[in-house]
Amino acid sequence: MKSAKAKAHTNIALIKYWGKKDPKLFLPMNSSLSLTLDAFYTETEVILDGNLEMDQFILNDEIQGEAETTKISNFLNLFRQETGILTPAKVTSQNFVPTAAGLASSASAFAALGAAMNEVSGMKADPTTLSTFVRRGSGSATRSVFGGFVEWQMGTCNEDSHAIQIDDASWDIAMVTVAVNTGKKTISSRQGMQLTVDTSPFYASWVETAATDLVDIKQAIRNQDFQQLGEITESNGMKMHGTMLGARPPFTYMEPTTIDVLAAVRQLRQQGFEAYYTMDAGPNVKVLCHLSDSEKIQMKLKEAFPNNPVIISKVGGGIELLS
């Protein structure tokens, strides 16, 4: 038996990935940019065991069924095809992120799984190459290979659609998450994404403006211009959610409390805090802010929403192997 264990953090896209031009290779319609978060992560161990008849998948101490295990096996097969190692695997994963709730658990999950399999299989791909493999499990996992501010370059083929770190985000950056609902979503990200691409008349404008937003936000990061960073983040996220309202049938991930949290963040700005909201495909709100302001912002949001967890996250690092 051989084993390896790895840890990866979630990331939150500031310039969103929403739509695939190649569903099989997970090639995106547009490049994206994210912030890796320290508070949410996945730890995964892969054991290659010749005594097993087939792959096994255990998530959060529960043995998973055929559908979920098949998904994991298909992902592991990418590494098996590369290395020629066909040994069945026991995969044990602990998700320190609510699953399927719009908190990017799939990003950390597949980044951690890919890192462990990369090690145990002896493939030893460099991080950039590894990001092209984990992309095939979850598009956003591409970005979780790295820490700080990370760009996923959309590329034109399997080999050049990968992530790079563009800044370590060590300049007083944090994110506060208001967990509106951590239950499983009624519409998965993949379902919502495809419905939007197929039916929303707003989608073409989304792709075009996302490219401009990316150029502008990278300039803001180079200049360490937090206000510009926040304004672009907020605008881009709301544009993505706007495309869903134009889909047929229209849908939204927002809940009544979501709307209230967005209003509360705007109030925080009126009180002098540099705080800007964004959301992925779920009702939970993430607030980009200064780390030095994060505890005050957390306190104010807890007062406003006493029934909702409010979690501070510092900037997260890239994937790491665990002993």
UniProtKB/TrEMBL annotation:
This is diphosphomevalonate decarboxylase. Gene3D superfamilies: 3.30.230.10, GHMP kinase, C-terminal domain. The keyword Oxidoreductase does not apply. The gene is mvaD. InterPro entries: GHMP_kinase_C_sf, Mev_decarb, Mev_diP_decarb, MVD-like_N, Mvd1_C, Ribosomal_Su5_D2-typ_SF, Ribsml_uS5_D2-typ_fold_subgr. The keyword Protein biosynthesis does not apply. GO terms for biological process: isopentenyl diphosphate biosynthetic process, mevalonate pathway. Its EC number is 4.1.1.33. GO terms for molecular function: ATP binding; diphosphomevalonate decarboxylase activity. Residues 178-308 form the Mvd1 C-terminal domain. Keywords: ATP-binding, Lipid biosynthesis, Lipid metabolism, Lyase, Nucleotide-binding. Belongs to the diphosphomevalonate decarboxylase family. One of its GO terms (cellular component) is cytosol. Pfam families: MDD_C, MVD-like_N. SUPFAM superfamilies: GHMP Kinase, C-terminal domain, Ribosomal protein S5 domain 2-like. Residues 8-163 form the Diphosphomevalonate decarboxylase-like N-terminal domain.
